[in-house]
Amino acid sequence: MHSKEQISHDEYQKTADWLMSQTKHRPQVAIICGSGLGMLADTLKCQDSFPYSDIPGFPQSTVKGHAGRLVFGELKGKTCVCMQGRFHMYEGHSLCKTTFPVRVFKLLGVETLIVTNAAGSLADGLQPGDIMIIKDHVNFPGLVGLNPLSGPNDEKFGPRFPAMSGCYDKGLRCLAKEIAKQLGVAGLMHEGVYAMVGGPTFETIAEARLLHRLGVDAVGMSTAPEVVMATHCGLRVFGLSLITNKVVKSYEDSDSVNHDSVLEVGRLRSQTVQQLVTELISRMEINNNNTPNNAV
Ligand SMILES: O=P(O)(O)O[C@@H]1C[C@H](O)[C@@H](CO)O1
Ligand SMILES: Nc1nc2[nH]cnc2c(=O)[nH]1
User: Fold this and answer.
1) CATH assignment, 9-284
2) Taking every annotated instance into account, which residue ranges of this chain make up the domain Nucleoside phosphorylase (predicted)?
3) Is 36 within 8 Å of 265 (Cβ atoms)?
């Protein structure tokens, strides 16, 4: 089902053209808000916002904690677009639809994509409330062929066989660590490997143990397909996981995770995540090599 659906370049372009006809903002940075992290859009000034239901070609958000709005605005001298709500494979969207906004962002002239998510920790040193800079990912659906790039390749966006080593920009990861020190939150910050699983089930204990043994630090149900699409079309990527729970790895442990507690940790850490992302956007350099006219 996932590899058959294709979205043509024209369809992405139509959505980008519609958005450019509705707002004067021409974003350089795009932010995808994870579960409970929609407040990242609140810091944007001079906002223009669009419910997904009004945007031609956009899928709809169905998950609590994902408002379903695209917000454009200015942040510390940079023009941004923020997805208040992302699309997940488990909602029944094809991977093309799940990642639809990423190529639209490319056509809008975006150069850098910031992805955020809520994730459960497997690494012993990662506690709920900690923030993990994503150094790399394991795309479990992708490993078995559920890849948004399956099917005919559109060379206008990128090559047939894109490299994924180094897909999380090193310079931005270093900058984020420096900012965390300056904000006095270095104690909360870690760097690690995120794994995407299909969801919507949280992990069994056996699955949690398997992921832990494989070297995964945090697990979630998103992000990897977006990053694959972004890297394919040449966007620079920065990723953050907010650790919302420890994944249960012991049969003696009676804890269990639920979506409301995931959202609650998002609320508790919203200010810190907001400060980090704001500073990162403020201090990142933009090369302006992807203006909408020469985007793809
Ligand atoms: O959109 P993200 O990846 O932040 O959402 C995570 C994974 C599930 O969608 C949900 C589980 O609580 O949070
Ligand atoms: N798969 C998965 N996704 C999450 N999102 C937030 N917490 C979790 C978790 O424990 N497992």
Assistant:
1) 3.40.50.1580
2) 29-281
3) yes
281 — phi, psi (to 5°)? -65, -40
Q: For position 293, what pLDDT does the model report?
A: 54
Dist. CA 180–CA 162, nearest whole Å: 32
Residue 294 pLDDT class (50, 70, 90 cuts) = very low
149 lines ligand 1 (CB under 6 A): no
The pLDDT of residue 119: 98
Pocket test for ligand 2, best of 131, 247, 253 (most atoms within 8 A of CB): 247
Query: What are the boundaries of each domain within the chain?
Result: 9-284
Asked if the ipTM is above 0.85, the reply is yes
Choosing from 130, 203, 216, 261 the residue with most ligand 2 atoms within 8 A of its CB, the one to mutate for a pocket test is: 203
